[in-house]
Amino acid sequence: MSKNIREIFAKKLRKARELKGLSQRELGLLTGLSDKSISAYEQGRVMPPLDILPKLAKQLDQPLSYFLNEDTPVDNLIIQLEKLESTLREVKKLLPSIKKMIRRRKRSSKRQ
Description:
It is a single chain. The N and C termini lie far apart (67 Å). Helix content is 70%, strand content 0%. It has 2 domains: 1-70, lambda repressor-like DNA-binding domains (434 Repressor (Amino-terminal Domain), Orthogonal Bundle); 71-112. The chain is elongated, with a radius of gyration of 20 Å. The chain has 112 residues and is mostly helical.
């Protein structure tokens, strides 16, 4: 059974926000909305006014159409790949620190 547009929008908004790594408060600040408004949209209680949709889409790097269509298996795969890319970027940021820590441990174990 097809979901109504409010349910689809709510689900997609939350997915896109989490994919960007933003809290509801952070998204609210970026769009001039309260975190309570973002929460209400994500819970499907209300739809945002039409003039707000482009602001949300822009801050979440998604086309407007993303928020209004149900996911297909390909959409789900793309979302998973984007999450994986995001995780890999975070790991790359941590690598220099991890390498330093390993070097320090090697040096301290050689001294003992």
